[in-house]
Amino acid sequence: MSNKLNHSMSLAKPDALDISNKQKVALSAGVIGLFILALALFNTNFPNKAVFLTLSLGLIIGGIVVYSREAYLSKLEGIKNDGVWFKSISSRGVWGWIVGVILTTFYIVLYFFPKYLGLGVDGAENTGLISLFDPLSHLLSGRNASQWFVYGTLYTVAILAFGYKFILKYRHNRYQQLRTVSVMFFQLGFAFLIPEFMYVMNNDLPYYDLKSIWPLNYYIFDEWSVNGFLSNGNIGIALLIFGVLSIFVFTPILTYKYGKRWYCSWVCGCGGLAETAGDSFRQLSSKKMSAWKLERWLIHTVLVFSIVMTAAMVYSYLGYDKNDFWLTRGVFISLVIGFLTLVFAAVMLFKRHELGKDAKYGAIGFFIVIALLLIMHYTGTTDHLFYIKAGALRSAYGIYIGSIFSGVIGTGFYPILGNRSWCRFGCPMAAILGFQQRMFSKFRITTNGGQCISCGNCSNSCEMGIDVRHYAQKGENIVRSSCVGCGICSAVCPRGVLKLENDTMKGRINPTEILLGNDVDLMDLVNQK
Amino acid sequence: MEHIVIIGNGISGVTLARHIRKLSDKKITIVSVEADYFFSRTALMYVYMGHMKFEHTQPYENWFWKKNRIELKKGYVKQVETETKTLHFAEGDTLQYDKLIIATGSKPNKFGWPGQDLNGVMGMYHKQDLETLETHAPNKDVCKRAVIVGGGLIGIELAEMLNSRSIPVTFLVREDSFWNGVLPQGESEMINRHIKNHHIDLRLSTNLKAINSDENGNVKSVIIEETGEELECNVVGLTAGVTPNIDFIKDSGIEIGRGVKVNRFLETNIPDVYAIGDCAEQHEAIGNRRPIEAVWYTGRMMGEVLAQTICGNKMEYKPGHWFNSAKFLDIEYQTYGWVFGKNGRPDYEQHFHWKHEDDTKCITVAYDKNTNQFLGINTFGIRMRHEVFDKWLTEKRDVDYVMKNLSEANFEPEFYSRFENEILQAYTNQLQTA
Known about the structure:
The complex is a heterodimer of chains A (529) and B (434). Chain A is mainly α and 529 residues long. Chain A is 60% helix and 3% strand. Helices cover 24% and strands 26% of the residues of chain B. Chain B folds into 3 domains: 173 residues, FAD/NAD(P)-binding domain (3-Layer(bba) Sandwich); 120 residues, FAD/NAD(P)-binding domain; 111 residues, 3-Layer(bba) Sandwich (FAD/NAD(P)-binding domain), CATH 3.50.50.60. Chain B: This is Nitrite reductase probable [NAD(P)H] subunit.
């Protein structure tokens, strides 16, 4: 909760946390693997890049695998959190800060200065780190690597290797294992391999990770992307339709049935990295009420921003004349406003009593969006929206949300803010799914009668910063828009109090003051409302 | 405005204060010498194990108390003057009350062992015990071995704590099997094996004779009663039960036995003085319950009830069906209704016991052999629903019904293996052979 570097009440570093010799060897292997990457970054010209790339990634993966096997398989099955608040890396100690700074620097270079990674500009050959990945890129798609290919490869390696570690850590828990296998599968297949193969089959198609849904995939409806789809015949149109259906049809249905976890902790790549490589940092997310307030303002601002921006993007390349194409600017704006109004009216009609004073904030947000859209429509010109050049608007959105928030802060700050700060504070997709989850879903975390002992393991391990204990100790189910359903609160609970489940909507939200186990008359008296 | 003073900021006192605040505008003061803010005592072990920091054991943020106008006073009450309704603090100041609630919890038992007050001998109950443990057992170099005396819930937690820092533990248990006064034999034996699997040196039917000191007054070794064996160690954990923490009211005129004597309204013999939680002792035990219930849940329930009485809706403490839970190293335990071990088991109580082949899961179902009425269940390694068993107990279901519908009570995470069919099969076979 606090940022103070107070390593519990421990006076000495507990010895049990020392690592075994085998782990030291594994750690060294991993470091050598990383060192090869560092040498490449500083332009060492390796004679046989394919061999050195294989060696490097092999050492990194092998190191993590051996290290984790030694850490978990030598002990009985169970919760393995001993010492997480003593270790420097996972308690905002020196190692935590060092890793945070390295990751953040990497993201800044990746997004803004890819030439330092060795990206060949204007047709020049790649050098440095990126050139090390050329052989793999050639193997998969026959083209040179880009900074995104390097990033994608490392990202996938991280999810696979740390996913394996996570599976071992929770080898008694099938829910954890299955969802980890799922994110590993979606990352390797959908995010990494399929787009490369799609390029091989049809190299005009824009890069499309099928599981990346608007608004997380903020550029899918941009002009170049849509043109890319439209100019590629049936397959392109099918993909574009899939993209639209994903957000408007598939997503609400799946979230209704299973909660937003179906996406956030079973499919999504950002979630996948957070749950695997980021698992060691989950306890760092702030559980303060003030953090929750900040979260609600930030994430919904991003959502408003991304809706308006996307509308503006689409709007900017639509025409005025319905003879050219039926979807004119006027029709489009009417559709958007009509849809938003429909959602807003439905929520106000059916869910007003659940929302309480939040209804007011919802209404303010709604009217701001509508006002912005109308202002855009009535002040916009052919190439200027909000008096700004349309292209500049789009790149601003890409930089501030896509790069800085999701990458630099979201992942770079894992060891400082916890592993889900992007998902919690910034992801517009999480905001939409969360809204669906809160309003209209069968998912909840059920609390088990009066069994809670307020120990706080659940809150401590919640990566989304939900104060789970606040609900559990009142015997109240947890129905929160931010919950990604990772299930760790349930896993670490020492009294078997929490269970993620899909059940009927009725009685899902059950505020109680007197817990089960006490006098039934008293429960009736106090809980009747 | 009426001034309610609560001594003790544990779960009982804090629950009471919260509920009084919901119901009224009374002035509320909570007095404690142990900690500035309410924390979950049951979570102290996780601080030593590094799962959490101490601040994470505090269920409410620090602004909560001011916002709810609950005053917190740090101080040690050394005397209660009931005629003038005054508390005298060891620090020298005083505090007036209109109504006083004693919610001071427990303290570890000491049975007069030679050496029981040496440096390095401790209970595991208060926040200060945790600090003492950090001093004497920070790691396996400083603490070469720890000996735990007393095989109950706190003893096994202390063993788990020390084990997390690779400190060798010898665990002395008086009974011939772990906690078998409470647990039926099959369960108790499974836990024995689980303890040993964690490389904890479990010594059953073994008593402590004396604790030896080195030249500086620190623990050097313990002597075992039965064998006379001397075990070198640096820490001795005394976890042979707890006793009400009420020394400070001995001369106040408030009636005490082992705890503060209360009636069903949680009133003491002195008007406007009440006692709740671990330190309260019922004149007559309620049902199968003990007169003193040193359990988290009962403390909370007493707090919930007494708030009604204090706010004008006089109400008896009338707890519902018994339930409890614990965790033995990696094995979770829940109980609903009554299942007796060796102690106090009624003649009519019959058990059905099932254990999974992996030796980490088992259940024991207790029923009345005359009427077949379901009496209670112990479940190890399989989570079950409180609500369902509470309902079945109220409905006085028979044991066949419970066994056939056991899957309704399952509370395991999704995708976990289910054992209801196997259990039912075993139950049916047992009936056929019986």
